[in-house]
Amino acid sequence: MNKNKSLPSLKRFKQRAKSLKNILGIELHQAYEQLSQSYGFSSWYECKSHYDRQDSSTWQIAEVSHKYVPIDEAAIAVPEAQEYDEHVEANKRFLTKLAIEYSVFEPTVTGLKKSILDATFPVRSHFRLEGFHDYSEQQQGSEHKVIKSAQLLGVENCISSKLSLYRPKTKKGDPRMWFRKLGGFALAGDIIAIIVIDDCAYLLNLSQSFLEGEFKSDHSHVGKHLRTWTSINNRVAEELLAALKKLAVTPFKAERKGDTAIGYTLESLLGIEANSSKKPDYKGIELKSGRGNRTRTTLFAQVADWRKSTCKRSAEILERYGYTRDNGDFKLYCTVSATKPNSQGLYFKYDYDCDWLEEVHNSGESVATWPSKLLEERLLEKHSETFWIEADSWFEEGVEYFHLRSLVHTKAPILTQLIPLIIDGKITMDHLIKRSGKTDKVSEKGPLFKINKRDLSLLFPEPIHHCLKTEV
In the CATH scheme, what architecture does the domain 248-467 have? Predict the structure, then answer.
C-alpha cells in the first residue's frame, strides 16, 4: 500500500485516531495502530517515524524577509490545505446516501479570530429551502440580527450553541453568520456541514469525523443523531409504502377524468387534500403516479424568469408561436428539447457564460430564460424524496379503473446532473398554453420539465424498486 496515500498532518492524524477510539470503543494506542495500518504502515511506531522524518526535513535556515504575508494566505501555504481530502468527500457521500440535506462552510484563520463567517450562496439557499432563514428579506444592521439555536455535534459530546444571522451595514450588507463556541469545534480549513432539523442548525465536522463508522457506533453522539434523523425519514417512507400495498390489493375506480385522474384518485384514497402547493405531497415525500404505458414522467413545473426573458409572460409566447385548432382554441402544445428544434421552431440552448437555459427560435429570437439555480432549487424542493408509482389502467363501461403495480423510491437528486441531462435531451420541457376560443382567456398548465422513466437513475442515486402486487 502507498504510505503517502492522502496522509494528513500529524495533528489531523491524532484527531482521527481519537475519533476512531470513541467509535470502536477501543484504547487510544489500538486506534493509533489501526489508523497507521490503514495508511500502509506496519505499526504506529513506523508511522510516527515517518512524521518525524518529514518534520526534520522541513527545518531549513531561511533568509530574513521583510515581506509580511496576510494570516489567511499563510494558512493556505500549508501543504495539507492544498491536498484533496478523500475523507471529507466520503463523509459527504454518506450524508447524501442517508438523504440528509446539508450545506458546508470552511472557516478561515481570520474568520475564527474575528468571529465572522460568510453565508455563501449554497448556505443561503439551504436555509431558504428549509424555511430556516431568508437573507433576502433581512435588513442591514445589528438591530435586525436573527438568533437561532444550534448544536455542535462531536463524537464524545453535543455542545449547545447559538447561531447569529445578520447583514452588516458595511460592504453592501453581505450575508454573515457566526456559531458561538465554533473556535473549540473546528480548525481553520476544516469542512463543516450544516444540517437543519426542527428549526435548529446542527454542525458536523466532516474533516474530523468518520460518519459511516459513527453511524454504526453506540458511543458516538454524531451517530445517534444520524440514526434518529434517518429513522424519522424511513418511518414516513415505510408508512406510505404500507398504505400503498393495501391499496394495491384490489383495483379502484377513478374519481375524475383525464390525465390527472390517477394522481388525484390516489391522493384522495391516501387522505391527502388537493392543493396547488409546490411542496411534496405526503409528509415530505412527493408522489408521482402514472399509467404504466407512459414512458415520460413530470419532474416539476417551472415558469421562466420573466425578468431575464424576452417574452414577459406565457400569453406572449403563445401569440408568437401558437397555432389555431378546429374548435377555435389557439394553442401551443409542444415539447422543447436541446437536441433539435420542434415543429414550431423552438429549442433549448445553454449559455455557459450566464449559467442559464434559454429557449430560442430558429429565427434566432430569444424566447424565455431559466437560470440554472432556479431549476436546481425547484428540483430539490420537489424531489428531495419521491415515490414514482405506476398503475395498470383500463375502462369498464366508460369508467377508468386503476390497479397499482410498482414504484421506484428515490432520494436526494444529483443537482449537478440536471443541466447536463437537459443539454443531452434526456430532460425536455412541455409547453401547455391555450387561449380558449369561447372565453378568450389564456391558461398555462406548465411549463412541465419531464424525464423518461428509464433515465431516473441518472438523476437520482440508488433508486429502490418495489413490486407492489407481489409484496402484499
Answer: 2-Layer Sandwich (3.30)
